[in-house]
Amino acid sequence: MVTMKRIHNKEDIVQIGLDLVLSKGFNATGVETILKQANIPKGSFYNFFSSKEEFALAIIDRYVADRNELFFPIISDESVSPLERVKKSFEKLIAIFEDYDCSKGCLLGNLGLEMSDHSENVRQCLEQALEGWTTGLSGLLLQAQQEQAIPANLDVEMLAENLISSFQGALLRSKIKKSPEPLRNFIHFYFDIFLVGKEEQ
């Protein structure tokens, strides 16, 4: 008889919880469900987390760390132009979304919709994560601007934030439509139309 290995490591529980929340949503993922999936005794959850809110903060931190690790080879590849690296970072996220049959989406957007009005700590953590994403993109966009790949009069921080906001909206639409088409349109409009042809503007 095969027995499941018990998980006693906090990081393992965070990863299992992250996967569950991405699939089911935060409020629909009960502590009992996490404990069962992790195969740990009832009540052990609170040995690691003082509350479910603290658990939410932990899965956000894990998600951001995973995304930073995912993005690093893309954004650090100096053989590719800065604007192309921005494009490739979004295309990587879209590919992951397609691999999950247009489900799950982005934890930051999902929790933003579900939790921002109910937990100030979670809202602030999400805002910090999105600000970090914005900072990373704006750095690449500034390089693109210095190379005259995008217009000099663009506010790169505002552009970075708008890219993320537009991506999140397209992601939500793709989840509802069960099609990556809105995300592909996002790529097309920004990187094939809006941010090209500087000399014609």
Automatic annotation (TrEMBL):
Which Gene3D superfamilies does the record associate with it?
A: Tetracycline Repressor, domain 2 (1.10.357.10)
Q: Name one GO molecular function term.
A: DNA binding
Could you tell me the keywords of this UniProt record?
DNA-binding, Transcription, Transcription regulation
Note whether Transcription regulation occurs among the keywords: yes
Q: Which residues does the UniProt record annotate as the domain HTH tetR-type?
A: 7-67
> Where exactly are the transmembrane stretches of this chain?
none
At which residues is the DNA-binding region annotated? 30-49
Source organism, top-level taxon:
Bacteria
* Family annotation (PANTHER family): HTH-TYPE TRANSCRIPTIONAL REPRESSOR NEMR, TRANSCRIPTIONAL REGULATORY PROTEIN
Protein name per the record: Transcriptional regulator, TetR family
Which species?
Trichlorobacter thiogenes
